[in-house]
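User: Good morning. I'm curious how adenosine-5'-triphosphate would be positioned relative to this chain. Could you predict the structure with it bound?
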Amino acid sequence: MRKPSTPDEDEIDAASLADRPVELLPKSALPYHPRVGDPLDLLVDLSVGVVLGRSESFHRKYHSGGLGTIGGVAESSDDILTTLMGMPVNLDLMSPHVMFVAGKRGSGKSYTLGIIAEELALAMERKEIEVAAVVVDTVDVFRQMVDPNDEQVDLLKKWNLEAKGFPVAVYIPRRTYVGLPDEVKKKARLFPLSIGPKELTVSDWGYVLEKGGTLSTTMENLIGETLDSIRKGYTLDSGEKMVLKRDFSIKDMIKCIEINPQINELYKPSTRTALIQRLKRADRLGVFHPGGTSAQDLAIAGQITVIDVAPLGSDAESVLAILTNMLCRQVLTYRMAWTDEGASAREELPPTWLIIDEAHTLVPRSGHTPAKDAIIGYAKLGRRFGCSLVLCTQQPSAVSDDAISQADIILSHSLSHDNDIRALQQRAPAVMPDQFRDKVFISSLPRGVALVFDQNTENKRGFIMQVRPRLSQHGGTDRLSGLFEAVRLLIPEDVEEEPEPDVVVEEAELEEKLGESEEEITEELLETPRPPLKLSKEDWKVLDGWMKDYIKTLFDQEKQDYDIIDEPAPRVEEPPPEAKPTSMEWDLERVPITELDVDQIRIRRFGPLSALLLGKAMTRQVLYSRASHDFLFNSEKDVRETLLVERDGVDPLEAIEDVTSGMISTGMILDELIHEHDFTFVCFRKDDLRAAFTVGISESQVSVPIVVIGGNKNAVGRLAGSIRSILPS
Ligand SMILES: Nc1ncnc2c1ncn2[C@@H]1O[C@H](COP(=O)(O)OP(=O)(O)OP(=O)(O)O)[C@@H](O)[C@H]1O
Ligand SMILES: [Mg+2]
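Assistant: Good morning! Here's the predicted structure, ligand included:
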C-alpha cells in the first residue's frame, strides 16, 4: 500500500515529473546525424521524447506507460526550433502493431529486433504491459539474450545504459535438447521443441520431405492415404486391426506404409521405399514427435520465448515454416475465441508479439510456404485481437506485399538494391523527404541507423534514428553453438527411437510407453562421453576434451562427405607400436624452439576440400585442440583475433616460412612447437601476447590459420592488424 502523503507532496511530485524534460542523447551516442532540409514534425512528449505508434489522444491517456526506448533521433537541421536531434525515440508497446524491419546484410536488422524484444521484457518487468513475445530465429542470434552485452560496454555508457541479461526461454530442436547435459540446459534456459506429426497436412509434408521442390502426385497421394489409414485404423492381411490413433510418430507412418495391405496393393515398392527414405530423414531431424510443442507452451504471458531452429541447419527453414504456421493459426484462434466467448479463453493465450527474422523465406512474394497464408492472415487480423507482428528481411522486394502492406511502422536500415529501395518507397506509411529517396543516401546509412516511418498522422514524415545499443548479448558464436553441433554429430541418430510399439495400443498404454522411452534415452545418453559440464569458464578444459572428440567426428564426417583421400602426412614419424596412444589418450609433444626448422612441422593433408571448408576446419583446430588451447588461453579476460592466410599453388614449406618470418617481423618471438597427432602448432609469444598457427593442405590449397590472444584488446587488435598487413589473406 502507498504511504499516505500530504496533498502538497503529491502535487510537487506530479508537477516535477511532468515538467522535467527528457535528457537529450549526447552527440557521442549519435555519430551519424546528417542535415535534413525538410522540417521535422513528430509527436513529441517533452518528458519522454518522440512517441511512435500512438495517436496524441492515446498518449495523453497513458503517458510514459507501455513505451520502450528504441533509439534516438539522428538528424540535424538548420532550424533550431524544429530540430529534434538527440530526442529519445519511444515505441508504443501497449497496443498491437504490425512492424516491418528492412535492411541489407549486416545493417543491424536482427539487432533492432532484439531491441524490440528487450523493450517488451523491460515494460513487462515494470508491470506496464503483460504480453507474450515469441522470437523465431533461424540463425542463432537471439538465444544469447540470456547474457549481458559485455562487448559494447563503452557504447552503453554513452547512452547511460547498463548491460543486462534477460530470462528468456529458449526452445531448441528436441534431439539437440535431449543430447545436452542438464547443467547446460538449466544455465542457458533451454526447452525442447517438437512438432506433432499430426499437425502437418499433406502439403506440409511435401514441403518437409522435398526441400525446394514438390513431391510427385503419386507420392503426395501415398502420404494422404498413409495419414488417413493411421487416423482411421487399417486391417492387416491376417485380419488384425490397427486401431485409430489420436497421435502418432513418423515411425507409425513408416510402419503403415510397410504393412498396410491396401497401400501395398496401390503403390509400387519403389514409390513406397522412396517415401520411407524421406520420412526416415525427416525423423532424424529429431523435431517431429508425438505431442508436439503448442502455442500455449510458447506464448506465455510475461515471457520472451526464443525459438532457435539453427541447430537444424539447412532444414531449419521448412521446420520453421510449419511451426510458424501452427503458431499463427493457434494464437489467432485463441484470441478470436476470447472476443467471442468472454474472458475465459483469453487466459489461455495472452496478446502475443510474434517477431520473425528472415521473413522473406516464410512469406515470399512469389511461391508458397506452409507459413505464408498464416502469416498474412495474422498480419491482417492479429491487431484486432491484440496480436502484434514484427517481420524482418534483407529483401523487402522479396516479401509478400499482402504482409508488408499491413505494416503501421516501418524501420529501414541501409538498402542497396533498386527493387528493395522501390519496395520501401511504395510501402512507407509516412511522407518521405526527397533526400531519403536517393540511392546513395539510403545505401550508405551506417550500421544501426534506420529510417523510421509511422502511419500515425501525428508523425508526419519519416526520420533518421540511431538504434540504441543492446543491453543483452546479440548473436555471435558461443560455446553452445559448438555444443549443438557436437550433439548433432556425436549423439546416435536413433537416440529418439521409441520402443517398437505394437500398433494396437490404447492411448494410456501408449503414454506409458512414451514415458519408458524417455528413460531409455537417458540411459543411452549416459554412454556417450559427457563431462560434468557447467558453462562456467573453469570448466573450459573439460569442455575442450569433448570439443576434441567433436572436432575428430567433424573431420571424420567431412572425410566421408568430401571423399577425402587422407594421405599420410609425409613428415609424420610413426610412433613405435607399443607407444601408440589409445583413441582417448593424448599424443602430444612440446618442443621449445628459438629458430624454426620447417622439416619438423607436421602438415595435415586432406583430399579434395573447398578452400572455405579447409579454412574453417583448420581454424577450429587451432582454437579447440587441447594443445594449442592450453598454450593460447590463459585467463577469462583474454580476447582473441583469428586470421587466415591462404595460398594456392605454393609449396606449404614456403608458406610456413613466410608466415613465421611475418610473425617475427611484428616483434613476436618463437616459443615452442606442439605436435599433436598429425598437426604441429607453431607458437609465439611476446609479453602478454600469444599466437599460434598450424598448416593444412588440400590439393594445391594451403591454409594457415593464425590465432592471436592477449589480455589487452587494443594490443591484440594492433598485432592482428600488423600481421594482416604483412601477410594479406
Ligand atoms: N544499433 C546498433 N548499435 C551497435 N551495434 C550494432 C547496432 N546494430 C548492429 N550492430 C552491430 O552490427 C552487427 C550486425 O548486426 P545484425 O546482426 O543485426 O545484422 P543483420 O542486418 O541482421 O545482418 P544479416 O542480414 O546478416 O542477418 C551486430 O552484431 C552488432 O555488432
Ligand atoms: Mg540478421
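Residues 539-726 form one domain. The radius of gyration is 29 Å.
Let me know if you'd like a different ligand tried.
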